[in-house]
Specification:
Elements lengths: L1 H25 L7 E6 L4 E4 L3 E3 L2 E6 L2 E6 L3 E7 L28 H28 L2 H28 L9
Helix pairs in contact: 2-3
Length: about 170
């Protein structure tokens, strides 16, 4: 009897996972939420995540954290608009408008975008690890740990490359 109950529960879990997967695939807005920030000056921003920090609303943008005083925001609403992150160029200097820092061979925008891209992947992997830990899924935990280690190494390599090009010092914005 207990075996049948365990099988029934396992079957229900599988069905639930299948239905959730179908929902996420048919309605991507379910898993990629965005927010529309309406500023008091009439401008609008589309962001994928925000948090309150004292009297400021903070969010990620262009490889860093931006803070806007809450008095400058008229409202923040969930949106059906798709948050589009600009894709970093794969080679420094090939993107439109790439800037050199004070005549050096450092393309600031490339490094900012690449760091942002890697940090977002890192945060997603950490959330995956948390979920695998809650679900007690040892195989998923092992795989996610490898992914996190790889991302950490990529961020370190990018940091070292930038530091080397900047006379051994990381810029303040890093």
């Amino acid at each position: 009897m207990a075996e049948m109950l365990v099988c029934a529960i396992h079957f229900q879990k599988k069905i639930c996972h299948i239905l959730l997967t179908i929902a996420f695939l048919t309605h991507p807005s379910i898993c990629i939420s965005s927010y529309l920030v309406q500023l008091t000056n009439g401008n609008q921003l589309i962001i994928y995540e925000y948090w309150e920090d004292g009297s400021q609303i903070r969010f990620y943008s262009y490889g860093g954290v931006v803070g806007i005083h809450e008095g400058l925001i008229s409202e923040i609403t969930e949106s059906d608009l798709v948050y589009k992150e600009e894709i970093a160029a794969k080679t420094p200097g090939k993107e439109a408008g790439a800037k050199k820092s004070e005549g050096k061979d450092i393309y600031i925008e490339y490094y900012k975008k690449r760091k942002k891209e890697l940090m977002e992947k890192y945060r997603k992997a950490k959330r995956k690890l948390d979920k695998a830990t809650i679900d007690r899924n040892k195989a998923a935990k092992r795989g996610t740990r490898v992914e996190i280690k790889d991302l950490h190494e990529q961020i370190s390599a990018l940091s070292s490359e930038l530091k080397e090009k900047n006379k051994g010092v990381l810029p303040d914005w890093w």
